[in-house]
C-alpha cells in the first residue's frame, strides 16, 4: 500500500513526460499501479464547475481556439466533455501555454496531461466545452464544414494575433530556409526564416489567412500549405508569434 503523497509524486513524474516504465524503475512501483492511480486521481466529472457563460478571458480564448482547430478535439463522457489538445513533446513551453490558456478561459477548471506516443494530451473536463467550441461534431474537421459563431468571429477579429499564434503553435512552424548566392565571385550560403501553416480543412485555412490579411501579413498558398516568407511579414510574425519552444 502507498500513501497519497507517494502516488502523487509518481504521477508528477508521468506528467513531466516520463514513460510508465521509467517511473516504475525509478520508484519501484509497478506500471499497473501507476496506471491505476492516474485513472483514479484524474478530476472527477461530478466535481467539474458548472457552465459559466462566455469565455472568462477572450485573449486566452482566441489562442485556445487556434490550438483547438489545429490539434484539439472534444470527447463526450457522462454529462460533459473532455477537451483534449495534442501538444508535441518537443515543445514543453507549448504544454504550459496550453494549460494556462484553458484555466484562463475557465478559471477553476481542472487541467492535467496524459502521455501518448510522441505527444502529450493537455486535457480538461467540463460540461460546457461544446458551448465554447461549437465546431465540435462527428468525424474529422476537414471532412465537415467549420465556421465560427458570430461571438467567436468577434473575438478573432478583436484578437487576431492570439488566434494566429494558436494556429501556428498547433499546425504551424517557424523554420530556417537557405539558398546560395554569388557574391563578389564567391558563392555564399544565405539563410532566411519562414513560417508555415498546414491544415487539410479549407475552412480552417481560410480562417487563418483571413486573420493574416487582417494584420497585414502577406502569404502564399500551395495546396494545404500556407507560407509566410516576405521579410516584413516574417518580422511581424516574429514580433507577435515567434517560434515554438
Please give the structural blueprint.
Elements (H helix, E strand, L loop, with lengths): L3 H12 L4 H8 L3 H11 L16 H14 E6 L2 E9 L3 H14 L6 E5 L2 E8 L2 H4 L17 H9 L1 H12 E12 L2 E13 L3 H14 L4 E3 L2 E4 L2 H10 L5
Antiparallel strand pairs: 1-2, 2-4, 3-4, 5-6, 6-8, 7-8
- The CATH architecture of the domain at 165-240 comes to Roll
Poorly predicted regions: 43-51
Question: What is the straight-line distance between the termini?
Answer: 39 Å
Number of helices: 10
Q: In percent terms, what proportion of residues is strand?
A: 15-25%
Main sheet record:
4 strands, antiparallel
| Class from secondary-structure proportions | alpha+beta
Report on this structure:
The strands form 2 sheets. The protein has a 4-stranded antiparallel beta sheet. Strands 5-6-8-7 form a 4-stranded antiparallel beta sheet. Helix content is 44%, strand content 24%. The chain is globular and about 70 Å long. Among the domains are: 1-40, no CATH class; 165-240, Roll (Endonuclease I-creI). Mean pLDDT is 87; it is low at 43-51. It has helices at residues 4-15, 20-27, 31-41, 58-71, 92-105, 129-132, 150-158, 160-171, 202-215, 231-240, and strands at 72-77, 80-88, 112-116, 119-126, 172-183, 186-198, 220-222, 225-228. The chain is an alpha+beta fold.
